[in-house]
Amino acid sequence: MLVDTAEITIRGGHGGAGMPKKFKGPDGGNGGRGGDVYVKTSSNINLLNQFSEKDVFVAENGGMGGRNNKTGKQGKDIEILLPAGTGIIDKKTGEVLIELTKPSERILICKGGRGGWGNSQDNQGGRGEEKKVILSLRLIADLGIIGLPNAGKSSLLNELTNAKAETANYPFTTLEPNLGVFEGKCLADIPGLIEGASTGKGLGIGFLKHIEKVSVLLHCISSESQDALKDYKTIRQELSSFNKELTEKPEIVILTKTDLIGPDMVQKQIKRLRMEKVISISIHNVKSLEELKKVLRSV
After folding, report:
1. pLDDT of residue 200
2. What radius of gyration do the chain's Cα atoms show?
3. Residues near 25 by Cβ (< 8 Å), separated by ≥ 6?
4. Global pTM?
5. What average pLDDT does range 237-245 have in this prediction?
6. Which of 28, 34, 156, 292 satisfies CB 3.0 to 4.6 Å to 118 for a cystine?
7. What domains appear along the chain, each with residue ranges and CATH number?
8. Beta strands in 66-163 (DSSP E)
């Protein structure tokens, strides 16, 4: 199961204490600096699952200063792997601290404390930075496949890519986003939305956020629909209610499952949608899929 939200506590290591003066002349070393905490991004979208078992991450403390002016050992840094597309939010203020947008980014998030001074009464090391944060993943994909439940989204993803998303002839087969790659472009199959999704109904707003970063929307409408235009408007309304900018993204409207109705009915459904361009497909019709692929190559 995809985990797309988690809460964790992170802290840099405390600085080690400095060595007090023991003999004539300064001979006490400074304490070692505490380790830092870094976050590093990966293309693995399942990395937030790790926080169900551990939610506190602390870098190593610095070592105490030694005699003969020997500086204490510096604490080891730690690195937390997160999926690209993760926002790091301050739990207390709600401020977005970092947006991780691409794989292999490495960013300092909590500094370790300074080492304490040797030969000083004030020889205590500084405390490491501590933050309580919310991790929120929004998938980064080129194309987002959207539509009502059972509109053929997962089947389309499977045909266009090497994904193996579960499919069945009933709503909500897809319970989490699925990803696939078509000729270098990442596609995300977003679980079926329903009227009221933007207020938490059905699978709710948990998946609407995954559409925010996609470049182009592939809006699937089943050819078996009793009211294709209403189905289209339902999804558009939920997008607008959640984030109006979603309705401004480029959109390709796809009439799916055309093998289940006759050619005349396909044309009637297209006319009912009242749009300049609708692509009609069946996953069992190679020609129709090739026509769609041509369009996708151009976006």
Report:
1. 53
2. 27
3. none
4. 0.69
5. 88
6. 28
7. 5-137 (2.70.210.12), 143-297 (3.40.50.300)
8. 78-83, 86-90, 96-99, 106-110, 130-137, 143-147
